[in-house]
Design goal:
Length: 315
Amino acid sequence: MEKKTAANKGIFEAKVLSNQQIRQCYYRLNLQFDAKGSRLFKNIMPGQFLELDLSCISLPDVSLIPVQLRDTAARQIMLRRPFSFSDVIITPSSEGPCVKVEILYCVLGPATVRMISLKSGDRVSALGPLGNGFSVPPGLKQAILVAGGMGSPPVLHLASHLKCHFPDCVTIAFIGAKSCESLPFSIRIGNFKGLVLEEFELLQVPSYIATDDGSAGFHGFVTDKVRHWLESHSVNPGSSAVFACGPEPMLAGTARLAKDFNLPCQISMERMMACGIGLCQSCAVEVKANSGTEYQLCCKNGPVFNAQDVVFDEE
């Protein structure tokens, strides 16, 4: 798999355009990069990411902090936090490109709690672009996208990228979560389609929902839904591929089903990435090598890997 990575990276400033709550604990943050950041991100690929410095952002009003985080919200933030993108808009101009990005985030700890305070006009320090993104194989005619929980943003970005740059590629998305309330998207009830994920509908990408508790869509794991769909549809391994991001057990399941159907598969791994540039060595991923296995860094060699190269814990 050819790696799609940024040759240059740097620290730059991003301006907040909007910060909107879309569901309980889920927010949509829109940023506009300065001239330096826009130049660095003009060739960004889905799956790449940046790191934000959130240490100087004030805590929101206590009423906005989830109850389970109120005791830990005031902890000092020492390290940047990594975020992938759900959408990227690049507008050319006489002064160079202008890059705007959308970040879907979930309030999980003291750093993301502070992000609630960001408002239009605020500025944050960003480091990027970082990592290797998804790579579109030559001759791709069908893309099967699989996302679990907060693995959804880079999958949504990939869907947009495919619709824009590969309009002849048929794209279909499978989105899984623990429950309906855990889906990080805007949801409405369609007259003929049941629950509709508006972000994928705007791209004209068909999407299927799976929830562990059966509160929306298919009752079960998203990988089981994908397997049922593959069993009932004719898929050409020579011109089709699977792309996935989500929790590691889901990625392991996706890798298995892709192997069962002889489909190439790229997965975006999740790890704690303290520095984002390979210095701290904290985000190791075990991969297969000629003499057995070796460790590569998620932030530098990934986060996107060939699914058949990754050694999962269950193996």
